[in-house]
């Protein structure tokens, strides 16, 4: 964890640093003796990131404290402190370390518009901008008090751990900008699904789901998130769920951003063209929007232009499948039924997660309950809470917000009636459970180069101790 250690000037012992603070402040850090004022910037050691005050556009006379890439010509802001409370350009802002409030941003009249609210002794700490883009307030012994990586705005950076859930208590949220030049909180946000943060995360339009993505065994299995070559990290057991990506070559710039239009974008800096390359974007098609195909209809990504299609054994409810579909033969309690595997599916929403089941037990769970309409099963390589490597999902009622992928996705086992009227080609695989077992869900990540997004589960260490959790983990 060398990066977490205080990056003071190595030539000057700490006691001199304390007494002669103003003479030996290095560019990447802020101390009690040397605050940051209007025209100043901090630049991380290797020169990758800068922190300072910016105005989002020439026409907007507001100043924000932010972090951006130091060497990228068009300023690309990755973090903003005072997004709801800008400082007028006519008032010179100041970022300082204060005794009872931690880092404090104030205007020329001394009004604090933002602070990290840490009760500290100002002389015993420093704030350092790291080469990861993380701005860290820490004690001189390196213990972290506060870090910007724990307070993301609209962007995730490599090695940043985005907390999806802590037990049932707390989850972080990315909140998009309001407009291209307006850092204040917009309508779109993104977070772990409160109902099942360990399985899926959702982009919201205000309070309504806008787009949903499932994650499993650390790797996104729905649509995938494909970035440059990456590395996987070991996973511990506990009830903290993180979402994180890494890149193998740290000199490549890569970011995940929730755009103000609601798109979750995966961007990579292309040095040759000196521009950001869009690697992937979600949602990918109109029918990929949350539940846009209606019940029992899915967005078919195997077509050149993705369109809504009825699930096997279903027919359009109206003129076409974009308004939902209905069963050709109803399933009723007491009448025989079977399951058909639908391969490469986006896991539908509104499932019930049943813990600690084998594949057979998962199927039995659905078979014996006549209101169960489908099930899906995954064996997780990285068991989550309670060391349960199984992930048995069952549905009752209609399947919503699903899709069929070319390469990613999982098997969903759909219940259909045995009775006449069921003329689907599913008859061929009726009760062929051997086949069903062979086609176990695979974690697919082959659309682009390598899939490097994963959920990491860290042993519970308490909310306050989250920082030391970070320190122990690499
Ligand atoms: C700049 O943008 C902020 C945030 O939307 C807004 O409150 C402010 O009025 C704008 N200022 C000008 C001069 O347009
Ligand atoms: C902060 O607290 C220290 C120790 O309690 C004290 O010496 C110092 O004067 C205080 N600084 C400010 C700006 O209040
Ligand atoms: C800050 O910490 C000091 C010493 O630990 C304590 O005396 C003081 O009451 C605290 N202030 C607040 C606002 O919590
Ligand atoms: C670092 O210093 C702080 C404040 O003096 C203290 O609370 C913390 O325990 C120290 N951490 C280590 C690892 O020594
Ligand atoms: C977001 O929701 C509002 C209604 O709350 C709607 O008017 C708007 O079109 C939605 N935005 C998008 C991009 O779908
Ligand atoms: C990714 O990197 C590893 C070693 O870091 C290498 O073995 C592998 O071939 C690379 N994969 C791709 C797709 O570049
Ligand atoms: C990392 O990328 C830089 C430029 O993008 C390149 O010069 C360097 O050789 C790469 N390093 C590795 C280990 O691939
Ligand atoms: C299906 O219905 C929707 C809305 O009713 C319409 O926009 C779409 O063009 C229709 N598709 C076909 C293939 O008819
Ligand atoms: C999981 O189920 C097995 C039997 O199916 C049982 O022995 C085991 O105790 C269960 N584990 C948990 C954590 O519930
Ligand atoms: C059957 O499924 C329904 C809906 O999921 C559930 O409410 C009910 O408790 C289940 N019954 C049994 C016997 O598992």
UniProtKB/TrEMBL annotation:
<feature type="signal peptide">
    <location>
        <begin position="1"/>
        <end position="26"/>
    </location>
</feature>
<dbReference type="GO" id="GO:0048544">
    <property type="term" value="P:recognition of pollen"/>
</dbReference>
<dbReference type="Pfam" id="PF08276">
    <property type="entry name" value="PAN_2"/>
</dbReference>
<dbReference type="Pfam" id="PF01453">
    <property type="entry name" value="B_lectin"/>
</dbReference>
<keyword id="KW-1015">Disulfide bond</keyword>
<protein>
    <recommendedName>
        <fullName>non-specific serine/threonine protein kinase</fullName>
        <ecNumber>2.7.11.1</ecNumber>
    </recommendedName>
</protein>
<dbReference type="GO" id="GO:0004674">
    <property type="term" value="F:protein serine/threonine kinase activity"/>
</dbReference>
<keyword id="KW-1133">Transmembrane helix</keyword>
<dbReference type="InterPro" id="IPR036426">
    <property type="entry name" value="Bulb-type_lectin_dom_sf"/>
</dbReference>
<feature type="domain" description="Apple">
    <location>
        <begin position="333"/>
        <end position="417"/>
    </location>
</feature>
<feature type="domain" description="Bulb-type lectin">
    <location>
        <begin position="27"/>
        <end position="150"/>
    </location>
</feature>
<keyword id="KW-0675">Receptor</keyword>
<dbReference type="InterPro" id="IPR001480">
    <property type="entry name" value="Bulb-type_lectin_dom"/>
</dbReference>
<feature type="transmembrane region" description="Helical">
    <location>
        <begin position="438"/>
        <end position="458"/>
    </location>
</feature>
<keyword id="KW-0732">Signal</keyword>
<dbReference type="GO" id="GO:0051707">
    <property type="term" value="P:response to other organism"/>
</dbReference>
<dbReference type="InterPro" id="IPR000858">
    <property type="entry name" value="S_locus_glycoprot_dom"/>
</dbReference>
<keyword id="KW-0472">Membrane</keyword>
<dbReference type="InterPro" id="IPR003609">
    <property type="entry name" value="Pan_app"/>
</dbReference>
<dbReference type="GO" id="GO:0016020">
    <property type="term" value="C:membrane"/>
</dbReference>
<keyword id="KW-0812">Transmembrane</keyword>
<dbReference type="Pfam" id="PF00954">
    <property type="entry name" value="S_locus_glycop"/>
</dbReference>
């Amino acid at each position: 964890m060398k990066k977490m250690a205080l990056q003071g000037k190595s030539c000057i012992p700490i006691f001199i640093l304390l007494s002669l603070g103003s003479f030996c402040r290095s560019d990447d850090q802020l101390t009690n003796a040397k605050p940051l004022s209007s025209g100043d910037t901090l630049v991380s050691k290797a020169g990758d990131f800068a922190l300072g005050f910016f105005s989002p556009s020439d026409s907007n006379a507001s100043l924000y404290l932010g972090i951006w890439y130091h060497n990228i010509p068009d300023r690309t802001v990755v973090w903003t402190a005072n997004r709801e409370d800008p400082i007028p350009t006519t008032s010179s802002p100041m970022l300082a370390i204060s005794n009872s409030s931690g880092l404090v941003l104030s205007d020329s009249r001394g009004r604090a518009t933002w602070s990290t609210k840490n009760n500290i002794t100002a002389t015993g700490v420093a704030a350092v901008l790291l080469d990861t883009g993380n701005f860290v307030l820490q004690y001189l012994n390196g213990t972290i008090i506060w870090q910007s990586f724990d307070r993301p705005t609209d962007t995730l950076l490599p090695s940043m751990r985005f907390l999806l859930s802590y037990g049932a208590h707390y989850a972080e949220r990315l909140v998009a900008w309001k407009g291209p030049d307006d850092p204040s909180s917009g309508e779109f946000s993104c977070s772990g699904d409160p109902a099942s943060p360990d399985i899926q995360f959702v982009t919201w339009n205000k309070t309504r789901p806008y787009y949903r993505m499932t994650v499993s065994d650390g790797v996104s299995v729905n649509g995938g998130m494909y970035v440059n070559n990456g590395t996987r990290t070991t996973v511990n057991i506990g009830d903290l769920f993180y979402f994180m990506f890494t890149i193998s070559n740290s000199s490549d710039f890569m970011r995940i951003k929730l755009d103000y239009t609601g798109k979750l974008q995966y961007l990579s800096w292309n040095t040759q063209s000196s521009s950001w390359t869009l690697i992937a974007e979600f949602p990918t098609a109109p029918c990929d929007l949350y539940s846009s195909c209606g019940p029992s209809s899915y967005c078919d990504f195997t077509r050149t232009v993705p369109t809504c299609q009825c699930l096997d054994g279903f027919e359009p409810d109206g003129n076409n499948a974009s308004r939902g579909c209905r069963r050709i033969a109803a399933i009723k309690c007491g009448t025989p039924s079977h399951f058909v595997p639908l391969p490469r599916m986006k896991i539908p929403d509104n499932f019930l997660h049943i813990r600690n089941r084998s594949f057979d037990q998962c199927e039995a769970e659905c078979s014996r309950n006549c209101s169960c309409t489908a099930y899906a099963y995954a064996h997780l390589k990285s068991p989550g809470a309670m060391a349960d490597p199984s992930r048995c999902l069952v549905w009752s009622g209609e399947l919503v917000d699903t899709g069929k992928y070319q390469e990613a996705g999982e098997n969903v086992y759909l219940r259909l009636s045995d009775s006449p009227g069921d003329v689907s080609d599913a008859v061929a695989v009726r009760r062929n459970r051997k086949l069903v077992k062979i086609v176990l869900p695979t974690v697919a990540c082959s659309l682009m180069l390598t899939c490097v997004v994963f959920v990491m589960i860290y042993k519970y260490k308490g909310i306050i101790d989250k920082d030391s959790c970070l320190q122990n983990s690499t």
